[in-house]
Structure formats: structure tokens, C-alpha cells
Amino acid sequence: MASNNGIAVVDIASKEVLNKPKEEYSSVDGLKFYENKLYGIVNGWGDTTQNGLFKFELNSTGTEILKSKKLMEFTERFRIPTTFDICNGYIYFIMNTQIDNLNGSTNKILYFNKLEPYRMMKIKAE
Fold first, then answer.
1. Could you give the dihedral angle defined by the CA atoms of residues 83, 54, 40 and 77, in that order, rounded to the nearest 10 degrees?
2. CB 3.0-4.6 Å disulfide test: which of 72, 81, 82, 84 passes with 53?
3. How many other C-beta atoms lie within 10 A of the C-beta of residue 83?
């Protein structure tokens, strides 16, 4: 589970948090478990050099993050990337969600003339 405090590993049966979330693993918008690793889209840091697609390596029990690796840096071509999935060893995600062109209160597009076609990214899961 991703939170403002970092990534928390939760035992579903007991609802117990199994680790202490660390702030360095916060600002995750989308998290997937694949082959005993977590993959996450990080797009919430004001310092955009901290944002990107990350792989989080876990301990053998899957209860602690041992280290993280940035697989892809988000450049100016990326507009609030989010929403991803992993299929057949590849990560697919929307590069330009354009959420910044949406009024969250009314769910209406702000500027139709600024809409762009969606761009999808495909990268091999390491």
C-alpha cells in the first residue's frame, strides 16, 4: 500500500502493517507486485528529478524494501504519468495522463483545445 508516509506492507488477514514506511519511498502513484518486487510510478515530488518509474527490491519474506532503482526518469515529455500494468514481463503505462487539464470537483475538462492523444510507454520489467 502506498501512502504519504511511504510504502507499507500489510498482512491482508490480520490487517497488520509489517514494516515501517520510509518517506524516501513516498509520492508513489500506482504500485504493482511482480516476481517478488514492487514497481511504482513516482510522480508526486516537487523536485522532478526524484520522480520516475522505480523498482523496489524486497527481502525474501516480502516485508521490507531493501533498495530501490530508478528504471526511467520522467522528462518534460511525461505529463503526470500514472495508471500502469505489467503483462508478460513488460510494464505499460500512460505517459501523458493530462490530469492537470481536469477539474477534479466537476470531472470536466478545462481546455479542450489543449488535449493531446494519449501516449503509452512500454519498458521491460527488470
1. -20
2. 72
3. 12
CA 87 to chain CA mean position, Å:
16
Q: What is the mean pLDDT of residues 65-75?
A: 91
Closest CA to 23 of 65, 84, 71, 58: 65
Residue 35 gets which letter from DSSP?
Answer: T
In this structure, the number of other CB atoms found within 10 A of the CB of residue 95 comes to 17
Please give the C-alpha separations between residue 21 and each of 3, 8, 10, 26, 77, in angstroms, as whole numbers.
8, 5, 11, 8, 30
| Confidence at residue 75, expressed as pLDDT on a 0 to 100 scale | 86
pLDDT in tens, 89-121: 999 999 999 989 999 999 999 999 999 998 999
Domains in the chain, ordered, with CATH?
2-124 (2.40.128)
